[in-house]
Amino acid sequence: QVQLVESGGGLVQAGGSLRLSCAASGRTFSMGWFRQAPGKEREFVAAIRWSGGTTYYSDSVEGRFTISRDNAKNTLYLQMNSLKPEDTAVYYCAAEPKTVNLVKSQWGSWGQGTQVTVSS
What we know:
Blueprint: E1 4-7, E2 10-13, E3 18-24, E4 31-36, E5 43-48, E6 55-57, E7 65-70, E8 75-80, E9 89-97, E10 107-110, E11 114-119
Parallel strand pairs: 2-11
Antiparallel strand pairs: 1-3, 3-8, 4-5, 4-9, 5-6, 7-8, 9-10, 9-11
């Protein structure tokens, strides 16, 4: 399993921006971001394919969040703009998807998470 370490979380006012990073211990292929709010199940946020860089987003973040990666640095990013209080959650990065459908897939490796809190 690849080791994943997220960073970049914090407290921000509504309408603000944050950029999350996820450093991988080795080469990864398709990767994704998920989040889990208190009392809720973990949900898909965004994913990016290794080959071609095709990206996928949940409806709730489409147009506000941008996923990207630097393959040379084995690092995944999530640029979050126009943040809303409902974006408050622990954000996790994931690697090693089990299926080609990145939105529905189970994932083999997870980071420890980084807290994002958006105040109103």
